Amino acid sequence: MERCSATRLNHDVNQATESEFISASGQHRRMPLLWRDGRSAIASLRHHWPEYLMEVGEVGCYLFVACMIATLLQHPASIVRHSISSAMVRRALMGLAMGTTAIAIVTSPWGKRSGGHFNPAITLTFYRLGKIEFWDAWFYGIAQFLGALGGVALASYALRGALGDDAVRYAVTVPGRYGSAVAFVAELTISFILMLTVLFVTNRKVMAAYTAYFVGALIALYYTFEAPLSGMSTNPARTFGSAVHANYWHALWIYFLAPSLGMLAAGELFLRVRGAAAPYCAKLHHANQERCIFHHANTKSR
Asked: Is residue 237 part of a domain?
């Protein structure tokens, strides 16, 4: 198996990923490009199907836990709902559960190999930054949406109808009392912060090993304090999975557009701050023995 943090097998590929030009000062500067290496969809699927299935499982796990915890905390028949009257405390518990789940996914064997994205907006941003091949990005996105649908379906079966109660409603994400405009700005902001954190932490050698914990902490904080504004998604697949089962389509565009724009904006800021130097890899957990299908930068995280 390839070591993500040390392999040199992709050296020639990386040079194609980052085009070089000579600036007015005569220095070489690398500009990251969207990547397409000519590999067909069939070839990508044949070689990388394990990573795609891992993304299915990761998103499915995240949605399954979200639905189970939402039912435990919100269903009228739940003893936990009756024991905890404070909505903020319940949101904090939800955040703790989902943050812990995110940490477990990223640091699991599957997360270490697939990169632990479980979010189409994260995959899209890494594609923009030249870290993911064209068809890999497509298949990751498809896998993530399928995983979301499967996770909610499994939770619905396990909960025997409780997930469809009006108080739970398949854990859908909807704009809060301040309306769609505020929800859009909130989703844009939290997605921007999440992606920017991932990029800077994974590309600092002393911090990279703790990326999962930064992500988990942000998710916990978002559920506690931001959820009243937008329902807390940052993930188009996460919202889509619940929306399909609940047959609830109100303001769905917010949860597709805002996270994607926010994370892409974070990627652009990252490039500007680093003088157009691309991130090292698209994994959220680099230091492991698992295979890496992504394109590596010529310089490692500092």
From this structure: yes
